[in-house]
Amino acid sequence: MGYFRPGDVALRREVLHGKPWAVTPTRVVEDGPDLLVVFTVPGVRFGFPPHHWPHGWQVAGNAHWRGHGKLQMHRPGDAYSVDLYWTGPDRRFHGWYLNLQDPFRRTPLGFDTLDHELDYWVPAEGGWVEKDRDEFEEQVAAGKYSAAQAEAIRATGKEVEAMLTAGTTWWDQAWASWEPDPDWPVPVLPDGWADYPVP
């Protein structure tokens, strides 16, 4: 399976319990053997296939992305993405969000993953905080993640904490100044998006 070109649409699909759970069309910024970077364009609409586990965004009525959009950086094998956020009318860089998730798996239309709820916020002014630990443990108890998955997610959290504490982050700080191509249209879900199989 080849790499995407800048500007291509890649479907970021979350797969829960073997079934598609949520789908977001993204624009590819960079793709290669060491890094996949995609952008969630402001206003893009999410897809929520029928699923026995309701998605939190769907329950809350969040049908599309608000704000300035977000940039997501993925390294092969990493059980997290590094997401960048901007804020305010001047699109000021807000910080880095380490989103724990399944290592991405390529598909013909994009890539599959699964959000793990547990996250880490690294504000632009420095420091870091853990987020959503209680929600994560509640979802483990409710059966969203198996005991083995939960243990692996906790282990990833410890690795991320050690990296942040030591200041040995791997990503280029210059990404904070990145700006999307103003000519990119908002991507849309293609026909049959809910039907393509889980590899």
Summarize the structure.
Pfam families: DUF402. The chain is of the alpha+beta class and 199 residues long.
Which spans of ≥5 residues are poorly predicted at pLDDT below 50? Answer: none
Number of strands: 10
- CATH class group: Mainly Beta
For the biggest β-sheet, the strand order reads 7-8-1-2-3-4-5-6-9-10
So how many helices?
Answer: 3
> What letter string, H or E per element, gives the SSE order?
EEEHEEEEEEEHH
Pfam family, one: DUF402
Domain DUF402: 52-167
Keywords: Hydrolase
Protein name: DUF402 domain-containing protein
Would you give an account of this structure?
- The chain has 199 residues and is α+β, with helices and mostly antiparallel strands.
- The chain has a single domain, classed as Beta Barrel (FomD barrel-like fold), CATH 2.40.380.
- Helix content is 17%, strand content 34%.
- The protein is built from three helices and ten strands; from the N terminus they run βββαβββββββαα.
- It has a ten-stranded mixed sheet with strand order 7-8-1-2-3-4-5-6-9-10.
- The model has no long low-confidence stretch (mean pLDDT 94).
